[in-house]
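Journal club prep, shared notes

We agreed each person brings one worked example of a sequence with its structure written out as tokens. Mine is Glycosyltransferase family 4 protein. I'm keeping it raw so we can talk through how to read the token line rather than staring at a rendered picture. Sequence first:
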Amino acid sequence: MQQERPLRIIHCFRSPVGGIFRHVRDLAEAHAKAGHEVGILCDSTTGGRHEDRLFDEIRPYLALGLIRMPIHRSVGPSDFAALWRGYKEIRSLRPDVLHGHGAKGGVIARLIGSALRVNRYRVARLYSPHGGSLHYRPGSMTGRLVFPAERIQQRITDALVFVCDFERQTYFAKVGAPRERNELIYNGIDDREFETVPPGPDAVDFLYIGMMRDLKGPDLFVEAFAQTERLVGRPLSALMIGDGPQQQEYSDLVLQQGLARRIRMQPAMKTREAFALTRNIVVPSRAESMPYIVLEALAARKPVIASRVGGIPEILGRDSTALAEPANARSLADIMARAITEKDWAARVMPDPSTFKSQFAASVMSADMLSLYRELCRYQPPADSVLPTT
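Then the structure, token by token:
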């Protein structure tokens, strides 16, 4: 049997922070180690020192390079410039696969891939929503613009890839069931992350780690922490780690609640370093798709208390008592209180480690994704197909 040639894969997304960035880094590393050539195109105006360090770590796996250019969150005239520059950069790299992540990444990958096809060069065009535009309500002003646009783009999509069933069902309900191929491939994490991270000697009771924005619920964490103290009748300790547009608001909230000595705030850091600083992880999000922080925490054997949103029940179990009602600080506080007062709470409530690993390992995710790439590319012209120069 003839050995299949390596693929040239480019991931397109807007913001190099959070779960999308993590997802792409994992796929890039796994596929590069398997002998494929990988590149990234993303925004140049988002991220800080932490993200720069993450780019430095992934750069050795990017044979097709790292393309960073301004890609703004809102839709505007600047998008045309980004598309034109992206087209010129990607055309010169001659990809077999363009995989767009998030709404803006999906537009870039599919429009540029379609432009390459017009110029007689075929490329597989994939789109993973990762929540993104699916958070909007269909009746809202934004929803009335976004969801028809998503339906139109289905015509230039070779495959939709969902990271959890919640995301897929939400897409079907808000955008419509696609005629094109769609696959469910769960997020996965590396085997190295399935090593236990024990709490350090000065570990706090609860940790919030993530973006500092209302969607992720930092304000709910602060309110639930205060209620938990009242429920257990003693002072507790907490840590909030992350960066984001509303960071100062939450810092002010902590001060207003008189919790500055018991809730400390720190900038973004590597998750496993943060895990050593706590005994419990709290994920109070108002909306999610398939958050990596839950996977990472469970792999490190950290107890997780989370809102019943998005794909989180698919990880913790749909009937898990570690799940709080969405946007409900009291519901979170009730579980937080049980977590630190009931003996063996985590052992009774958290998923079985071996079952969890068999479902959410990065090796499973990357193999399934590569199989999909291969199938979509199988009938495409070879890599030396001639591209127009103008």
